[in-house]
Amino acid sequence: MQNLRAAGLGLTVLSLAGYVAGLWVAYPGRAVSLTAFMVGVALAAIGGTE
User: Fold this and answer.
1) Domain count, the chain
2) So what's the pLDDT on residue 50?
């Protein structure tokens, strides 16, 4: 489960970087960063603390 948590945290960080980049430069699909953020948080939450 640690791998799932790490993947979720990594996805969360990458999606936040994509969102911040989208504040300065409009690029196609930037709304996907918000979806990736939500998925990343969910993965980190179910990844457990084992």
Assistant:
1) 1
2) 65
